[in-house]
Write a structure and sequence with these properties.
The complex is a heterodimer of chains A (about 475) and B (about 220). Chain A has about 475 residues and is of the alpha/beta class. Chain A contains 15 helices and 19 strands. In chain A, the strands form 5 sheets. A 5-stranded parallel sheet of chain A has the order 5-4-3-6-7, sandwiched between helices. Chain A has a 5-stranded parallel sheet with strand order 17-16-15-18-19. Chain A has a 4-stranded parallel sheet with strand order 11-10-9-12. Chain B folds into 2 domains: about 180 residues, Aconitase, domain 4; about 30 residues, no CATH class. The longest helix of chain B has 14 residues. Classes of the chains: A alpha/beta (about 475), B alpha/beta (about 220). The interface between A and B is large, with 78 and 62 residues.
């Protein structure tokens, strides 16, 4: 038998039929739905008088537009409110399970689904959101799709797809103290570039990846799309199975036994062929801070802002100049001297319990620096918020001067009221530092939760161990 | 979906790498529950000098005269020339909706982000991948001569110049045949897939034995 990669196994077990033109009809086990990319899909179903193929495959929750304060007041912005109301109406009308805004299970789709056990190993999972790659952490084939494809999956439970190429990203050895999954993925993107994974499905492997918790693995897979890869996955192991066990949507009893056995196969076979392999040594990776307007523009906390004059490629040089201009930074400045105005801890990348614990550990018995206008902590779901409160983390954070908010996407993309003002500089645990992403003219530096909390305390980026 | 066979139009050069979908259509416009009306806010933060919000009268806003789409010579462009990794970032289909609503039917670049590339085909937009040197050549030609028009022919898979252009262009491009077929015919992909309903049911029946936990009623 030919040795297969994890991706090959996931792909092969979901092919309904192969078409003559090289495309395949791929079966989709789970679709996650949120308010922004679904209204037009439901409208399409209605216009064509079609019904969802398999209702139980879908799970919905509003996240992008929801307010993170004063929930009982509802949504103030009438256009945002209409969008969330439309999701509620569509889910009610078609009979799709939805965790509405007042449900404790509501939160960011990519946090909610794994938390519920709705993300399972060996499955295919899609969502009208590029960060669907998150679920690859479970040995799941998960990728973002557009709204037309959301409609396609609703109507047929399938997608017409062409197989991507296999890429292996191997991180060997042990991570340095203070280096998190966020630092690892930023270092990977810095190495391969934001288009390095275009056309590929990435598998993350190696001792450093194996050592990560499921939360860390989700952070890693979440940002595969920032390297251009629609899917970024990690083989199933004991850590995966332990995480899934006993969650509300996970199989139980005898079914659990057979599922857990079945999932053991979701790893790459020895000798499986990868079109491309990239290797990093864990010991080379330092805590990261992005300096520019693309996630590949990343640097170690100990470095100085890079100089475009040292870049030979004219297109890259122009890109660096434009980025420094937008970011209001000067080449040669040590990044740990750059002050921050706002700190955001949250997003589908870093809003899980482990992330909040990491921030609280740094903030304990300290105060947010005077120069920092706002330091937000936005948990990824109502259940994470509750758990953090049970652990007393909210108290530690609010005592230090952080704001403790309701769950949602919040300032990651600033569709709700949480946003940067022009020229405000933010240490953010989110995933994109694009121009205007967190508010027009806002300046985003992507960092880990520990680094973000440390920046809030110090008032500037700082090596955590010197705090 | 609108069919695409052949167009002759002005091409607008957007000389920037890694143009992301946040730039193509900023998030505040994603709150719409419609598929149409995004064109006036295409590249909103680059096109206008003020902060755009949904519901604004865009004709009253101050326009950024330096942004290429605002230059009179490119006013009726239907072809967008772009650089590497065009359409990266968010999966929002609002990006191709905005481009299509503005009037763009063809995008030519050395590379595209996967999800955006895929989304174009669902909306009657033809994304063409060409070698970087060829894209460079097109940028030069288009920038050199005002009013220059290119003809993009999906049947022949060619990009060509007419007599209005001093520099002769004759480029062949490659494209996936299934996608070409869907664009040429303006096909409804859902209808195509539903024609295989029996195959889907057969697959499900087989999987119910292998992964029964995925077929619980819940």
């Amino acid at each position: 038998m030919t040795a297969k990669t994890l991706y090959d196994k996931l792909w092969d077990s979901h092919v309904v039929r192969e078409n003559d033109d090289g495309t395949s009809l791929l079966y989709i086990d789970r679709q996650l739905i949120h308010e922004v990319t679904s209204p037009q899909a439901f409208e399409g179903l209605r216009i064509a008088n079609r019904q969802p193929w398999k209702l139980s495959a879908n799970l919905a929750t509003p996240d992008h537009n929801v307010p993170t304060t004063d929930r009982e007041q509802g949504i103030a912005d009438p256009i945002a409110k209409l969008q969330v109301d439309t999701l509620d109406e569509n889910c009610d009308l078609f009979g799709i399970t939805e965790f509405k805004m007042d449900d404790i299970r509501q939160g960011i789709v990519h946090v909610v689904s794994p938390e519920q056990g709705a993300t399972l190993p060996g499955m295919t999972l899609v969502c009208g959101d590029s960060h669907t790659s998150t679920h690859g952490a479970f040995g799941t084939l998960a990728f973002g799709i557009g709204t037309s494809e959301v409609e396609h999956v609703l109507a047929t439970q399938c997608l017409i797809q062409k197989k991507s190429k296999n890429m292996l990203v191997q991180v060997n050895g042990r991570l340095n103290a203070g280096v998190t999954a966020k630092d690892v993925i930023l270092a990977i993107i810095g190495k391969i570039g934001t288009a390095g994974g275009t056309g590929y499905a990435i598998e993350f492997a190696g001792d450093a990846i194996r050592s990560l918790s499921m939360e860390g693995r989700m952070t890693l897979s979440n940002m595969a799309i920032e390297a251009g890869a629609r899917a970024g996955m990690i083989a199933v192991d004991e850590t995966t199975i332990e995480f899934v066990k006993d969650r509300p949507y996970a199989p139980r009893g005898e079914l659990w036994q057979s599922a857990a056995e079945y999932w053991q196969n979701f790893h790459s076979d020895n000798g499986a062929h990868f079109y491309k392999t990239v290797t990093l040594e864990a010991s080379d990776i330092q805590p990261q801070v992005t300096w520019g307007t693309s996630p590949e523009m990343t640097m170690s906390i100990d470095d100085t802002i890079p100089d475009p004059a040292m870049e030979n490629d004219p297109v890259k040089k122009d890109g660096m100049k434009a980025a420094l201009d937008y970011m209001g930074l000067t080449a040669g400045t040590p990044i740990n001297e750059v002050p921050v105005d706002v700190v955001f801890i949250g997003s589908c990348t870093n809003s899980r319990i482990e992330d909040i614990r990491a921030a609280a550990e740094i903030a304990k018995d300290k105060k947010v620096a005077d120069g920092v206008k706002q330091a937000l902590v936005v948990p990824g779901s109502g259940l994470i918020k509750q758990q953090a409160e049970d652990e007393g983390l909210d108290k530690i954070l609010t005592d230090a001067g952080f704001e403790w908010r309701e769950p949602g996407c919040s300032m990651c993309l600033a569709m709700n009221a949480d946003r940067l003002e022009p020229q405000e500089r933010c240490a953010s645990t989110s995933n994109r530092n694009f121009e205007g992403r967190q508010g027009q003219g806002g300046r985003t530096h992507l960092v880990s939760p520990a680094m973000a909390a440390a920046a809030a305390i110090a008032g500037h980026f700082v090596r955590i161990d010197t705090l | 979906m609108e069919k695409f066979t052949k167009i002759t139009a002005i091409a607008v050069p957007l000389d920037r790498v890694n143009v992301d979908t946040d730039a193509i259509i900023p998030k505040q416009f994603l709150k719409s529950i419609k598929r149409s009306g995004f064109g006036p806010n295409l590249f909103d933060e680059w096109r206008y000098l003020d902060l755009g919000e949904p519901g604004m009268d865009n004709s009253q806003r101050s326009v950024n005269p330096d942004f290429v789409l605002n230059k009179a010579r490119y006013a009726n462009a239907q072809i967008l020339l772009a650089r590497d990794n065009f359409g990266c970032g968010s999966s929002r289909e609002h990006a191709p909706w905005a481009l299509e609503d503005f009037g763009i039917r063809v995008i030519i670049a050395p590379s595209f982000a996967d999800i955006f590339y895929n989304n174009c085909f669902k909306n009657g937009i033809l994304p063409i991948i060409l070698p970087e040197s060829t894209v460079d050549e097109l940028f030069q030609v288009v920038e050199a001569q005002e009013g220059a028009q290119l003809t993009v022919d999906l049947v022949q898979q060619t990009i060509s110049s007419d007599d209005s252009l001093s520099h002769n262009i004759d480029i062949r491009f490659e494209i996936d045949q299934f996608r070409r077929h869907c664009l040429l015919e303006g096909l409804d992909e859902i209808g195509l897939t539903l024609a295989h309903s029996d195959d889907i049911r057969n697959y499900e029946n087989k999987q119910k034995e292998i992964t029964p936990w995925l077929f619980n009623t819940r």
